[in-house]
């Protein structure tokens, strides 16, 4: 069966804009997030409190977050370490996300740490978030399927890091196909292995990049396993500055189009979402890669 409702975790303002060559002004980002909130999206990842030299595109987090904090939506932010958590909590963030890797190569490239060192870095972040009046913590896990340096990633390796993130207190996990190489059979195999390991499917979200055009098929496979949280990026913006060959995320419009056809409720108005992505594309100076945006934008 399929779920009756799916919660979309919108990542365009973070995963999308972190990868833009040109820096988008904070006012434009804030307007983007306001427009996304007006479409009915309820979870809109706003930015990252990471080292500004590592991700200069999001160096304006202190300016951006207060500019959108009044919106009646959840605004999760990425925090790699206690320094990032301090910055986020100082601005009143109520949802944070740590981001682990299933592979050593990406842990090194993205966090300058081994997998275990990164987990050790997250432990006090999660503990302190819980102490801070129960701030919600998402644990991202990158390279769950394939890694540009290591190739195919064994399922057991992924299950192990998932367990570690849940055991340290993460409220939910997001399984990342950072470079977009997953296919539906692999998605099913990983979700079956996680269920076998006692990980409740209600704690799992999926995060697909669309490099090989498989993101929607992979999402469908995940829905069949009972997943109800799906990450997507308005207009298909995205990539990862520390993962060569990562292209855009699953486009939120493509996701909404499929879910609408399946009779699955998202609460999102597709027309205003398309209009938002067209507006953002004009700012970025190139058309959205989303097929659904292209199909609907002219109509
Ligand atoms: P490091 O160089 O090892 O940092 O980087 P450090 O801990 O040695 O500290 C060095 C300096 O950085 C210190 O300053 C710290 O204070 C400062 P100094 O004493 O030299 O003046 N510093 C900070 N400043 C501001 N904010 C902070 C912070 N932390 C340290 N939070 C670090 C380690 C984790 C900081 C760095 O590697 C980093 O910022 N990485 C972030 C990379 C990133 O954001 N990647 C993209 C997001 S992940 C993704 O896109 C995948 C995802 O979408 C899922 C998927 O698709 O798979 C989520
Ligand atoms: Mg990503």
From TrEMBL:
UniProt key word Transport: no
Q: Name one GO molecular function term.
A: lyase activity
Q: Which family does it belong to?
A: Belongs to the HMG-CoA lyase family.
Q: Is Lyase included in the keywords of this UniProt record? A: yes
Q: Which UniProt keywords apply?
A: Lyase, Metal-binding
Q: Which Gene3D superfamilies match?
A: Aldolase class I
Name of the protein in question: Hydroxymethylglutaryl-CoA lyase
State the superkingdom.
Bacteria
**Residue ranges constituting the Pyruvate carboxyltransferase domain according to the UniProt record:** 6-274
Which organism does this sequence originate in? Streptomyces thinghirensis
Pfam families to which the protein is assigned, alphabetical: HMGL-like
Matching PANTHER family: HYDROXYMETHYLGLUTARYL-COA LYASE
Q: Mind telling me which InterPro entries this protein's record contains?
A: Aldolase_TIM, HMGL, PYR_CT
């Amino acid at each position: 069966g399929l779920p009756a409702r799916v919660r979309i975790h919108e990542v365009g303002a973070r995963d999308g804009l972190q990868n833009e060559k040109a820096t988008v002004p904070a006012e434009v980002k804030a307007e983007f997030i306001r427009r996304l909130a007006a479409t009915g999206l309820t979870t809109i990842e706003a930015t990252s409190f990471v080292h500004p030299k590592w991700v200069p595109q999001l160096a304006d987090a202190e300016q951006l977050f207060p500019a959108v904090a009044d919106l009646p939506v959840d605004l999760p932010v990425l925090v790699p370490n206690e320094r990032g958590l301090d910055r986020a909590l100082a601005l009143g963030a109520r949802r944070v996300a740590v981001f682990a890797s299933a592979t050593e190569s990406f842990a090194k490239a993205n966090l300058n740490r081994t997998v275990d060192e990164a987990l050790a870095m997250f432990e006090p972040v999660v503990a302190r978030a819980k102490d801070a009046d129960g701030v919600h913590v998402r644990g991202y896990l990158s390279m769950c399927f394939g890694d540009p340096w290591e190739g195919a990633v064994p399922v057991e390796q992924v299950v192990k890091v998932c367990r570690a993130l849940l055991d340290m207190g993460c409220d939910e996990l997001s399984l990342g196909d950072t470079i977009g190489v997953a296919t539906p059979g692999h998605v099913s195999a990983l979700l079956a292995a996680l269920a076998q390991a006692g990980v409740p499917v209600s704690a799992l979200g999926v995060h697909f990049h669309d490099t090989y055009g498989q993101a929607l098929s992979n999402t469908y496979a995940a829905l069949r396993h009972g997943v109800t949280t799906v990450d997507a990026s308005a207009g298909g913006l995205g990539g990862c500055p520390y993962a060569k060959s990562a292209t855009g995320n699953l486009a939120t419009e493509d996701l909404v189009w499929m879910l609408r056809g399946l009779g699955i409720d998202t609460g999102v108005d597709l027309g205003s979402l398309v209009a938002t992505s067209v507006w953002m594309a004009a700012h970025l100076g190139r058309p959205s890669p989303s097929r659904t945006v292209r199909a609907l934008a002219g109509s």
